[in-house]
């Protein structure tokens, strides 16, 4: 059998064994003219060499030592190999080692990283494929490199939790399925410094709760205070979740789908917060519906107050916030102006403004009163809510 016929037979055998198209070429790819075996993705070079050694055994016209190997890479498989390496060890993602960045070179597709004792690899983690496809889709063809460097850099920047959360929300938006299970948020990625800061804050809280007790070191006192601290932490978390839920409802999201999206029952969030949720939503919906009028009033009072000498210096520090109120960025960007308006108006009650700033202050005070007295959402407001807003906003 001629050398070319033997190489074609070998390539056909390898194609059948590996599941990828293997081509024999006699060419000068890397400075020497010889026989090359080329293929895309599929088994890594080490695995292919084992396949070749087994398939070429007994074929005198093929000297496997003279063969060269050329494996063509695709961006998807490069990113999949990287993710398959870091998913079981998320702590290395902040500063990925060389083995992670070049995991493709030792990864069989489909398969695990190369094991010298095995030729037939097991399937890669399906999550690696899903996350890799999603990460690549975040870039246009002009923004990314075929070697996957930009995609991998993006993954390192946002972290595995960020990637999983973004992918999860994209799935919900595409499938309109509020019952899609949320991803498990990995707590191992919280830095040691943050954990130390949290422990220090807890110690400060417990020290204040103990006060000057002569038995502060008694384990019964410490356990009691720790249990009380647990309740304080849960209350703080509930308040943050309440604020986020209220903002989402003001944006037009329905409460039930929000609850089920995070793995709770349809009524859990509503029962957890009760009437307090309506009290939080009411002023937010008012601000949403009156964003332009409120922003213009803030700007007007800030500009007038700058020229009014009766406005004291302690109130002037909020003028920048009021002057830069812009409804074009959405009602959420105006949330900080509420506290700024209160600070300015409190000062004007103690030292009434004179001249041109008096009327703008009065108008702003009327709007603030309307904001504070806004009625809870009615049936029409609730009926307009939908599963998720078309462009979900981030909670500030």
In short:
Strand 2, helix 2 and strand 3 form a beta-alpha-beta unit. It contains 17 helices and three strands.
Element layout with pairings:
Layout: H1 3-18, E1 23-27, E2 34-40, H2 45-55, E3 68-72, H3 75-86, H4 98-101, H5 126-137, H6 149-175, H7 192-210, H8 219-250, H9 255-261, H10 268-273, H11 275-289, H12 291-306, H13 313-316, H14 319-323, H15 335-350, H16 358-372, H17 379-384
Helix pairs in contact: 1-2, 3-5, 5-6, 7-8, 8-11, 12-16, 15-16
What does this structure look like?
- There is one protein chain.
- This protein has 396 residues and is mainly alpha-helical.
- 56% of the residues lie in helices and 4% in strands.
- The chain has a three-stranded mixed beta sheet.
- The termini are far apart.
Helix content: 55-70%
- Taken in chain order, the helices and strands follow as HEEHEHHHHHHHHHHHHHHH
Helix-strand category: mainly alpha
**Assembly category:** single chain
Mean pLDDT: 87
Major sheet: size, sense and barrel closure? 3 strands, mixed
Percent strand: under 5%
Q: Which blocks of ≥5 consecutive residues have pLDDT under 50? A: 111-120
Q: What is the overall number of helices?
A: 17
- CA radius of gyration: 32 Å
Give the beta-strand count: 3
Sequence of strands across the biggest β-sheet: 1-2-3
Principal-axes geometry comes out as elongated
Measured distance between first and last alpha carbons: 73 Å
